[in-house]
Amino acid sequence: MPEQPAAAPGPLAMLVPFGMMFLIFYVLVFRPQAKARKAHEQMVKHLKKHDEVVTSGGLFGTVVNVRPDAITLRIDENVRVEVEPSAITRLVKSRAPGGEPAPAEKRA
Q1: In terms of Cα–Cα distance, which of 100, 82, 90, 84 is closest to 43?
Q2: Bridge partners of residue 93, in order along the sequence
Q3: pLDDT of 96 over the 80 cut
Q4: Segment 40-67, tens digit of pLDDT
Q5: 3-state DSSP assignment of residue 97
Q6: How many CB atoms lie within 10 A of CB 101?
Q7: Apex 21 CA angle, 25 and 31, nearest 5
Q8: Burial class (CB in 10 A: 0-12, 13-18, 19+), 37
Q9: Cβ(19)–Cβ(27) under 8 Å?
Q10: d(CA 76, CA 88)
């Protein structure tokens, strides 16, 4: 008696692996990226005068002025640079309300 060939999987069964791959990409890539973007937006939104920051180009500077379209940094005496808010990569030191420096929040 000859063996019968195996039946081909249905179209729905072929979509399950693609759904699993999308779920894995969402959990491992898209969700953490969205969280990091949201945290960066909050950090830039709460920048204030005298905060020390680092730009994406590696410049360390002190915030002098904050506008919605640009942030002015003092990088040395009589040297000021305007950068886009998206160029600020991290907060090095934030000034506490009393005028003394407070440590920046640790980022994971």
Answers
A1: 90
A2: 52, 103
A3: no
A4: 999 999 999 999 999 999 999 999 999 9
A5: coil
A6: 14
A7: 20
A8: exposed
A9: no
A10: 17
In whole angstroms, what is the distance from residue 102 CA to residue 23 CA? 40
CB of 95 closer than 8 Å to CB of 101: yes
Element (H, E) at 39: helix 31-45
Considering only CA atoms, which of 9, 100, 95, 87 is closest in space to residue 55? 87
Global pTM reads 0.67
The rounded distance, in Å, linking the Cα atoms of 89 and 84 is: 11
Tokens 């000859």 map to which residue? 2
Residue 33's alpha-carbon distances to 25, 28, 36, 50, 63, in angstroms, are 11, 9, 5, 29, 26
CB 47 within 8 A of CB 71: yes
Question: Phi, psi (5° rounding) for residue 106?
Answer: -80, 140
Q: Scanning the structure block, which residue is given the tokens 């680092």? A: 54
Cα torsion 74, 79, 85, 90 to 10°: value is -50
